[in-house]
Amino acid sequence: MIVCLCRRVSDRDIHAQVASGVSNFELLQDETGVASACGCCGDCAREIFDAALAKSGCAGACRSERAAWAVVSLR
Hints:
The chain has helices at residues 11-19, 25-32, 42-55, 59-74; strands at 2-4, 9-10. The chain has a two-stranded antiparallel ribbon. It is built from four helices and two strands; from the N terminus they run ββαααα. The N and C termini lie far apart (36 Å). 63% of the residues lie in helices and 7% in strands. The longest helix is centred in the last third of the chain and has 16 residues, at 59-74. The chain is mainly α and 75 residues long. Helix 1 packs across helix 3. The mean pLDDT is 87.
């Protein structure tokens, strides 16, 4: 399924990025461009990303890493 029409990013692309080690949404955006043009797909893309992380077994450690990244990004 195409998630981001502007950048033509699919759910498979998001899952592949997570499988290759992408563990935060900002890096996913850098790698794929998802949710970086009009932003309409942001919620859907984040849900798919979170589900892919959970499926990969990265839910606990990566979530804390993403939270730390968000704090650093806000400074």
